[in-house]
Amino acid sequence: MSTPVQPPAGTASSHRAVENLIARYAELVDDGDFAGLGHLLADAVFTGSGPSVSGREALERMFRDTLIVYADGTPRTQHVTTNLAVEVDEEAGTAAARSYVTVFQALPELPLQAIACGRYHDRFERRAGQWRFTERRVRITLVGDVSHHLRRGAARD
User: Fold this and answer.
1) Please, what is the average pLDDT of the chain?
2) 75, 130, 135, 152: which is deepest, by most CB within 10 A?
């Protein structure tokens, strides 16, 4: 039986920090916390199916203008991120990640269902000892009923 190779302690810590940023994104979207998303992605360029967006205020506005929010203050979704692959360059202070995303939604008039599936391609930098998003590219490959999730005329991302 071979012994698994353990990444250096710093690399493992960096992997975990990047994974936590990806998880935090899903939490903020599902909580309808668009100001939090603007802060999380403040140093990033966000590219979905529409034009790329950057800057805290522009990102917050994009999410607010795109997603339908219900009486509970949320879009009534659960973003599930899987198949996560993270590559860290400790010396350069950079990282890249690839993952799948499945978006579920349920409403009183809409049974629980997957409404979109796709991929995230992310880049990160370590600044002042903290990992930050520098890029999030979203590619939605399967689309279901997003009529209760996206505002009419909104880009699908």
Assistant:
1) 92
2) 75
